[in-house]
Amino acid sequence: xxxxxxxxxLVSLAALTPHTTELVLRPVERPLSFKAGQxxxxxxxxxxxxxxxxxxxxxxxxxxTGHLTLVFDHVPGGKGSGYLSSLKPGDRIPVSGPYxxxxxxxxxxxxxxxxxxxxxxxxxRCMLRSLAGQGSLPSxxxxxxxxxxxxxxxxxxxxxxxxxxxxxxxxxxxxxxxENNAETMDVIKQIAGNGRQVTPMIAGVKAFAxxxxxxxxxxxxDRREVKLETYD
Length: 232
Ligand SMILES: Cc1cc2nc3c(=O)[nH]c(=O)nc-3n(C[C@H](O)[C@H](O)[C@H](O)COP(=O)(O)OP(=O)(O)OC[C@H]3O[C@@H](n4cnc5c(N)ncnc54)[C@H](O)[C@@H]3O)c2cc1C
Known about the structure:
By secondary structure, this protein is α/β, with parallel strands linked by helices. It folds into 2 domains: 3-99, Elongation Factor Tu (Ef-tu), domain 3, CATH 2.40.30.10; 112-230, Rossmann fold, CATH 3.40.50.80. The chain is 23% helix and 34% strand. Strands 4-3-6-1-2-5 form a 6-stranded antiparallel beta sheet, with helices on one face. A 5-stranded parallel beta sheet has the order 9-8-7-10-11, sandwiched between helices. The site of flavin-adenine dinucleotide (FAD) has 21 residues, from β4, β5 and α1.
């Protein structure tokens, strides 16, 4: 259940790629418990009618520090992401949450198919870290799309995970536009075609996520079986 709004203090801000930033917040009043895949809302003191509410997925599972790790991409001219980039350690922001149902299934899936584009990888990374923290990963594939090679979020981390966990496959692709999904679609057909049992979870902007859900439905999955987290 979502907690009431409270103040969080900015602990750190660090570049992950040339156009993405990791932001670590510390809730000041009480710890916030959440599940991997969920998001929080930041109430930013900007815009024509402040606050401007912006949602950000949690990038790290809950930890003893109680810190909340978020990652955002710098939207050109974006009010929310522009404001977040200007923050300094010690600055304070009202936050609420956690929210969302984009979480791992309760029972072990036959094959977990995680598909994300760019900052859409954030909740998927949180899930993978949560699963890895519990021991070995279930049979799983991560299809990760980035706009350029220099913007491949968590690329090294996912490579290392795939090298250490034989049940996990990491398939990175680069595509400038979220609509240009031909390679991703081919791989999805290979993995989910011929009636194979998969649990798909897709995150990113609608132009990326929706055609992939449509493809999975063409391959025989029910709409409700395809979990989607769209950002715009
Ligand atoms: C449930 C949920 C979780 C989210 N989690 C994250 C997250 O972990 N990291 C993150 O960077 N963003 C996330 N977002 C998006 C975030 O809330 C903001 O919409 C985003 O930062 C853009 O806000 P802005 O004010 O800077 O841009 P705006 O001025 O609102 O411009 C938005 C436009 O920028 C484009 N755009 C480019 N990148 C994004 C993006 N990442 N999200 C939305 N629109 C984008 C879209 O085409 C859209 O039309 C999430 C959104 C939702 C609904």
